[in-house]
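Lab manual, section 2.4: Encoding a predicted structure.

Procedure: take the sequence of the chain (215 residues), apply the prediction step described in section 2.3, and record the output as structure tokens. A sample record is shown.
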Amino acid sequence: MFKQLSVAFLLAVSSLHVQSAALMGFEDSYMLMTETGEYNQEVMFNYAPSIHHAFGVEVMRMSPKGMRATTMTGINYTGLIQRWNLPSAQANVWFMGSVGEARGLHHGFSYSPSVQFDYETTRLYFLAKMRMLRAPGMNNDMAAVQGGFSFYEADFDETQPWFVLEAKAIKNFNPSLQVTPALRLINKNYFLELGITNPFNKSERAPRLNLMFTY
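Recorded output:
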């Protein structure tokens, strides 16, 4: 499954003839992003001096089922590689990378570069991402795809609900495949996402909460 998602991602990116890359706010903005779930927990805070670059700090905890967790703490960089402003849509290619230290099951220098492509209209959304997660003895490389649609169009100052479905494959991890249907609420400078990972597998079912706030 990991190889299948990786190939799908590379085809999506290569078909656009673009290079690598991950996610930030507007110029001179601060962004806080969190993910809280049973298997993956992450907090990232960054500052964007321009619409092309952001710098910050990140803490990620990988908690495989039945194993000791690994926490990766480091500094990160986000760069906008390419943007297409289409008549009724926008597409982006991003690079995001972090370096730091891992503690827990794996110990020592850690790094996690990633490349991401996303496409969005006012009603449709698609994302494909590949991320390396490495530390001594650790290879939890990840490939993910997301797709979603909004229930209706909304003005900037109104809350817009979206249905989003994500499939994530992680090497050497339990569970290796995580499928999460979620409800996403977007309003001005924040989004809130509530989902259930592997909802049809009782032994792996777990709630997940994502939050992003830009100011």
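Check your result against the sample. Helices lie at 2-14.
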